[in-house]
Design brief:
It is a single chain. A six-stranded antiparallel β-barrel has the order 1-2-7-6-3-8. It is mostly beta strands. It is globular, with a radius of gyration of 19 Å.
Length: 252
C-alpha cells in the first residue's frame, strides 16, 4: 500500500513561545496516516492557502515519487519546518516557527486561528550520528533551535553535546533539556546580517582532539557554507557531519 503523500490538518492552538517564535499545534483525522520517521530533526513542508483566494494548490506526485508542479508554480505556497513533536495517539503535530515582519509563512502563523486548514507532507530526517558517537557539536540559529531541542530530548545522557545557538535577542532564549554533558552557549547576533554571524567563531576555537565526534549545523545558507569550509579544514568531521541550509537571506 502506497503511503499517502499529503495530510490535511487544522490549527488546534497557537502559543507564543518567545518574541520571535510561535508554536502551532495541528490536529485532525487527516493526521491519522501521518508517520514520524523517529529522526530528531525530521521536517515537513506546510502548504498554505493562497492569501488572496483561499485556494490551496498542491503539487502532484508521479510514479517515481517526484513532485510535479502546475504550470503556474507560484500558486503553490509552502515552507519547510522541523517537526517539534508528534503525538500519534492524539493526532497532534507541533511546529515551531520563527516569526518576523513581512514573511508570508510568518504572517500566516501569526494570524492563524483554531480551525484554519493546512496540508502537510510526509516527514524526512537528516540527523544521523555514527554508531561510535561519543560527542557532538550542534550549531544553529533560531531556525535550527526546534531541531536542536528535539535532538537533546532524544540523545542518550552520556553523549557529550556542545551546543551553540545564535539568536537576535536574549528574550529569544528557550528552556532546553540539558545537563552536565550538554551545556548551551547562547550567542546574540543579527539574523539579517549572516556575514557577521557569531556562529562563524565557533569551530576555529573548538577542541576536537577526542575521537567519536559528529557535527550538525542548521542555519542561513551563507553561514552554513562558511562553516562547511571550516569543518573541512579541521578534518575530524570528514564523513561525520550534516550541515543544512535552513534559509537564505535572499529568500523569505
Amino acid at each position: 500500500m502506497t503511503a499517502r503523500p499529503f495530510h490535511e490538518a487544522t490549527v488546534l492552538r497557537r502559543q507564543q513561545l518567545t518574541r520571535g517564535m510561535v508554536r502551532l499545534t495541528f490536529n485532525g483525522e487527516g493526521l491519522s496516516a501521518f508517520r514520524s520517521t523517529g529522526i530528531a530533526d525530521e521536517y515537513v513542508r506546510l502548504f498554505f492557502p493562497d492569501p488572496e483566494t483561499g485556494e490551496l494548490v498542491l503539487p502532484e506526485i508521479d510514479g517515481d515519487g517526484r513532485w510535479i508542479f502546475p504550470a503556474e508554480r507560484h500558486r503553490v505556497h509552502y515552507s519547510t519546518y522541523t517537526v517539534r513533536r508528534f503525538d500519534q495517539a492524539r493526532c497532534e503535530l507541533d511546529i515551531d516557527l520563527v516569526v518576523h515582519a513581512g514573511g508570508r509563512a510568518s504572517d500566516w502563523a501569526c494570524g492563524a486561528r483554531a480551525g484554519d486548514r493546512i496540508v502537510i507532507n510526509n516527514p524526512r530526517g537528516l540527523y544521523k550520528p555514527p554508531p561510535d558517537l561519543r560527542w557532538q557539536v550542534l550549531i544553529g540559529d533560531a531556525t535550527g533551535l526546534p531541531a536542536i531541542a528535539r535532538i537533546l530530548e532524544t540523545c542518550p545522557a552520556d553523549i557529550e553535546s556542545r551546543i551553540f545557538i545564535e539568536i537576535d535577542d536574549e528574550a529569544d532564549r528557550q528552556e532546553l533539556v540539558t545537563g552536565p554533558c550538554a551545556p548551551v552557549v547562547w550567542l546574540c547576533g543579527e539574523a539579517g546580517r549572516p556575514a557577521q554571524s557569531k556562529l562563524l567563531d565557533v569551530l576555529p576555537t573548538l577542541s576536537t582532539e577526542m575521537d567519536g565526534g559528529y557535527l550538525w549545523v542548521a542555519a542561513e545558507k551563507s553561514v552554513v557554507r562558511a562553516l562547511r569550509s571550516q569543518a573541512e579544514s579541521l578534518g575530524c568531521f570528514a564523513d561525520r557531519q550534516k550541515l543544512v541550509s535552513y534559509w537564505s537571506r535572499a529568500k523569505d
